From TrEMBL:
Enzyme class, broadest EC rank: transferase
Gene: SOT15
Sulfotransferase domain: residues covered: 75-339
Protein name (Swiss-Prot/TrEMBL): Sulfotransferase
GO molecular function, one term: sulfotransferase activity
Coiled-coil intervals: none
UniProt keyword annotations, A-Z: Transferase
Alphabetized InterPro entries for the sequence: P-loop_NTPase, Sulfotransferase_dom
Family: Belongs to the sulfotransferase 1 family.
The protein's Enzyme Commission number: 2.8.2.-
Length: 351
């Protein structure tokens, strides 16, 4: 299912019959728990389940629950957290290249693999009954996640614990996130019947019924934590990454414990990283134009679907002024007094 190079070894650790039995029982138990949760027809025909205030794609919720129970953190772990369609692909590429720079092999992997195949979302590791052994992953373990902060394993969030992990969160302006989600959901829907209209998408999104949504609560949980513990949670914005990619790469590198050296500053490493991970570069690679991968829900996804326009403010091409106002009203309401703000919130000019 995964083409991640370390995934096979994560599932090779021998288990006793008793351990296998325990895993099978836990799997059954969690599936029952999920089947009793509120359900929604969801986006792209994948049912959504409401768990502790967030809507999860049903096939992945099992992974979130298992991750919470079974994950064993290491102090060097770095989580890359996003709400879907906020720039995960870009963040994964940047983190991977920043972390692996200096060693030619891994860095060039980004040219032949989709960033999602450099390391998949961690909850997807846990969707099978068999619990993976992540000790097989090289250190530092980079792990992407869409899981809301409050639902990450306690061990990851426990600031008293020596294993408390670092987290980089990338957030995106909600209207652009909505438009990107809409295109992606319809792109993977597989049939005309399961496509949704933009009006339906706006309605669902504003009610919080979007994958891993409500998007505002998702952003605010990480935002609050980044303000409380800036040494452990780095909060980035897609729009800032677009405007000042080099400054953001430096910030990421420092946070990840691999600061850009004076030598690298002199030899143009930062610009090289930005160029290698740019939308233009990645979307033009053969693997991302014609490749296909399986996602966490078990669907075949064209890699090209992860690269649509990569622009700030594309919502203007897709949302009516009324739709934009509706999303902005929710954004203003939810973000009021939190210190978090987004660009492009003014009502668009009416004809
Ligand atoms: P995912 O949650 O399915 O992984 P994610 O990567 O978070 O999706 O978001 C996809 C968006 O990031 C797309 O935005 P769009 O629909 O508005 O175009 C995609 O184009 C954009 N994107 C992907 N790679 C890059 C990149 N290298 N630079 C900027 N934007 C990118």
């Amino acid at each position: 299912m995964f083409s991640h190079p370390y995934i096979a070894s994560c599932f090779e650790t021998p288990k006793t019959e008793a351990e296998k039995y325990e895993e099978a029982v836990a799997y059954q138990h969690r599936r029952e728990e999920i089947s009793n949760l509120p359900v929604d027809s969801g986006w792209g025909n994948i049912p959504g389940r409401l768990y502790k205030g967030f809507w999860f794609p049903e096939p992945i919720l099992y992974g979130v629950l298992s991750l919470r129970r079974n994950f064993r953190p290491a102090p060097s772990d770095i989580f890359l957290a996003t709400c879907p369609k906020s720039g995960t692909t870009w963040l994964k590429a940047l983190a991977f290249v920043i972390c692996s720079r200096g060693s030619n092999g891994p860095q060039s992997m980004i040219l032949s693999r989709n960033p999602h195949d450099c390391y998949p979302n961690i909850e997807n590791f846990y969707i099978k009954p068999q619990v993976p052994d992540l000790d097989a992953m090289p250190s530092p373990r980079l792990m992407a996640t869409h899981t809301p902060y409050s639902l990450l394993p306690e061990s990851v969030r426990d600031e008293e614990s020596p294993s408390c992990c670092r987290i980089i969160y990338l957030c995106r302006e909600p209207k652009d996130t909505l438009v990107s989600t809409y295109h992606f959901a319809n792109g993977i829907s597989g049939s005309d019947e399961s496509m949704i209209s933009m009006a339906e998408a706006v309605e669902l999104f504003c009610k919080g019924h979007s994958p891993y949504g409500p998007v505002w609560e998702h952003q605010l949980e990480y935002w609050a934590e980044s303000r409380r513990r800036p040494d452990k949670v780095l909060f980035l914005k897609y729009e800032d990454l677009k405007a000042e990619p080099e400054a953001n790469v430096r910030m990421m590198a420092r946070f990840m414990g691999r600061p850009i050296t004076a030598e690298e500053e002199a030899d143009g490493t930062v610009a090289e990283i930005v160029g290698l991970c740019s939308f233009e570069k990645l979307s033009g690679l053969e693997v991302n134009r014609v490749g296909v991968r399986m996602n966490g829900s078990g669907r075949a996804i064209k890699n090209s679907l992860h690269f649509r326009k990569g622009k700030v403010g594309d919502w203007r091409e897709h949302l009516s002024p009324e739709m934009a106002d509706k999303v902005d009203a929710v954004t203003r309401d939810k973000l009021n007094g939190t210190g978090l703000s987004h660009c492009n919130l003014e009502p668009p000019a009416r004809p």
